[in-house]
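User: I need a structural model of Protein kinase domain-containing protein from Zingiber officinale for a docking pre-check later this week. Nothing fancy, just the predicted structure tokens so I can convert them on my end. Input:
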Amino acid sequence: MEVEIVKEFPHSRIADVRPRKRARSRWDADPLTDAKAQIGILCGQEVNIKSIKSSETTSNDTRPSQYAKDFVRQLSPPWRGDDKDGHYKFELGENLTSRYKIHSKMGEGAFGQVLECWDHERNEMVAIKIVRSNRKYRKDAMIEIEILQLLGKHDANTSRCVQVRNWFDYRNHICIVFEKLGPSLYDFLRKNSFRSFPIDLVLMHDMRLIHTDLKPENILLVSPEYIKVPDSNVSSNKGSHFKMLPKSSAIKVIDFGSTTYDFIDNNYVVSTRHYRAPEVILGLGWSYPCDIWSIGCILVELCSGKMLFQTHENLEHLAMMERVLEPLPSNMLRLADRDAEKYIRRGHLNWPESATSRESFKAVLKLPRLQVFPKIKKKKSKLG
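Assistant: Understood. Predicted structure tokens for Protein kinase domain-containing protein:
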């Protein structure tokens, strides 16, 4: 069997160039009048600007040398402000404080951006999550930091949760420094033309924490390396005869901005739509099972290569659940909150009578029941 080992996926190197405006802060004080604070305040280090000046100036010239100006300018990029959504603007190759140099952009989401940066102090690549300068997202980021630090204290390298290296507040952006990992399960599936592959999942419920937003995008492979193996399921007219498999199945969970404790009143809507549990949609309150439901959706997606519930509407989503599994328990329907009562009639889901369109009805009807998903059935038979 021919096997090709590939080191890692190429990163997209697209910088955000949208215009931004915001008032100057201490980070943008004149680098020649406040250089020491500018350089050392957050990075836990100090640079002796006086020694730079003395080596580059004459006894009659008390002004900082051009070398000193260039040195400080390199440590502190020019102020560009934020856009209307509060995203940080950067350029590849410049510094994020004196410690981190921006290497590439790894991703972007509602929270902000993730940059691949070189850590001058540890001599390694890291991933830095730069949160939008928005009050809500800053608050969520501080909650995430608290959760990450708690996980770090209880972690014996078996929790499979991403490790936080450091955090700081830079130009009104909370920046969280993480170990650099490989691609997410979603990215791997996409680059693999949505061919299936096996994976293990382990969570942190023994610490009474509920993640609430488990999805392929929030589960990363530890290593970016993968192998290419022959794919016997692809005919000659359907593209490549090879598929990719992770060289290592080790994973880590990321994004704890929505994580909460099980003893907190949990009645609000959580989880990304396609991985959302029925109790969340019905307004019944939720706990650990909402994470388990998300894991089930992820496993089916990995084993089949297709998202299980491709929908954006509550009633259609519930109908898909019944189609794939079985009718929703009557006690769940009976206890549904006021907002979800419209989906129920005479103790049953009001489907297909309340379907919003013929296309919606067809989308539900075409789904197979879980036990007859080809990949699931094949794997089950092997286990006996």
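Before docking, keep this in mind: The longest strand covers residues 100-108.
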